[in-house]
Amino acid sequence: MAINLPFNVSLNVRVALRTKLILGTVIASVSGVLLSFLLLSEPLSESLTEPVQGQGRQWGELALIILATISLSWAMSYFVTRKLATSLMALEVGLLNFKDNDFSISIPVSGDEQLSALATLFNESAASLRQERQYIYQRELLLDKVIQSSPNVMLLLDDAQRIIYANDAARHLFNQGSRIEGLSLLTLLESVSDELSRALQNPKGGLFSLAASDDGEDETWHLSRGQFLLNGQYHHLLLLKQMTHELNRQEVAVWKKVIRIISHELNNSVAPIASMVNSGRMITSELNDPKLKMIFDTIEDRTNHLSQFIFNYARFAKLPLPKKSVVDWHKLTEQLGQHYSFKLEGELPGSQGSLDLIQMEQVLLNLLKNAHESGSAADGVTLSIEESTLVDGTSGISIEINDEGAGMSPDVLKQALLPFYSTKQSGTGLGLPLCREIIEAHDGRISMHNRDNVGLCVRVWLPQ
């Protein structure tokens, strides 16, 4: 006959911890009662009827019985709950460590089944918290590495405008690489330019320009602001991003688009004209008229000149991506010396470079040509190629060309790398912009500044 147990009671009976405590108390109490009953059942009842002189002995026996009962109850309770006290103490210590953000502790698994289950659950929670903390720590390290390596300037301020956090770019912009955490923003702005100070004190973000040093190109920056509440206190985030390179790239992209449109339209007109000139020469060949020959020669000469003019601009607009290969610096300098003379300064890099040889040779030839046309003596033009490392640890090659010419005025330096700007009467204004396009396509950079005494210095940096 089957027995249906109500409430899905399991047949695997387990004695709960609370039941054990109750049983221990009941056993201790019953033992005490039984002991008292056995001791008081007859000797004590008879002694109670005795005269007064025997009452002292009776109360002494009663006190001994009560003391024996208390001792027995305490001993049995202590024996039953000794592992419970140990487990609870270990659990308390473990939770105190949790409170102090220390998840390295684990408690022993022993004793009662429920205590063992509780200890196991505690240890599993500690292991899970340790793993989660390690994951968060690694993520924080990765995030900090990304922020510190970012070229964007990042400042985190509290509500009192005191700097809480700053990345490496911010330290180099404001304090030459030294730590600025803990300083006041107003104190920090005392050592920067007026343009930067005004931009950072403006409650709104936007674009602003900073005058470059060494008569270089002005820098355009974008400032964005953010605010959030953390631990009951408002924090302010300032992000500064240099936009000069991006704006120049967009400007060049617009110029290229215009050049492609103009070149297409001019080619559509020049090609029929050249064809008509050839047809006209054939038709009028029997006339042998000198005036017609001069007219055809003039038209052909101007169309050829216009075609070459269009080709030069189209080459700038359709510059192909660099096809990098291994370059021998000794061989490259020998090829350059066959076209323009220069003095090689310093030792050439021991390692070979990786770049587009044709494009880079065109860049260096153009820069050497400009150096010779600057009014410098031939022996005053120098070239140096050496290994270089940036502040962020990026290794590369630094190429420097110096001359002893007249140099450039500040206005010319600001526009020298812009398309169509030229100080030469017959110049197209595409030489230096083409050099810049090739160098930036190699993820490099070009800079120009007047030398201290005389002449111009052009520096090209290329990543390895």
From TrEMBL:
Reaction(s) catalysed (UniProt annotation): ATP + protein L-histidine = ADP + protein N-phospho-L-histidine
What biological processes does GO assign it?
Answer: osmosensory signaling via phosphorelay pathway
UniProt keyword ATP-binding, yes or no? yes
Q: Name one Pfam family in it.
A: PAS_8
* Keywords in alphabetical order: ATP-binding, Kinase, Membrane, Nucleotide-binding, Phosphoprotein, Transferase, Transmembrane, Transmembrane helix, Two-component regulatory system
**Which residue ranges does the record assign to the HAMP domain?**
82-134
Q: Which Gene3D superfamilies match?
A: 6.10.340.10, Histidine kinase-like ATPase, C-terminal domain
Where along the sequence do coiled-coil regions lie? none
Q: Which domain of life is it from?
A: Bacteria
* Residue ranges crossing the lipid bilayer per the database entry: 21-39, 59-80
Q: Name one GO cellular component term.
A: membrane
Q: Report the membrane topology from the UniProt record.
A: Multi-pass membrane protein
Q: Could you say which EC number(s) this protein's record lists?
A: 2.7.13.3
Which intervals hold domain Histidine kinase?
261-464
GO terms (molecular function) for this protein are: ATP binding; phosphorelay response regulator activity; phosphorelay sensor kinase activity; protein kinase activator activity
**Where found?**
Membrane
Does the entry feature the keyword Cell membrane, yes or no? no
Give the protein name, as stated in the record: histidine kinase
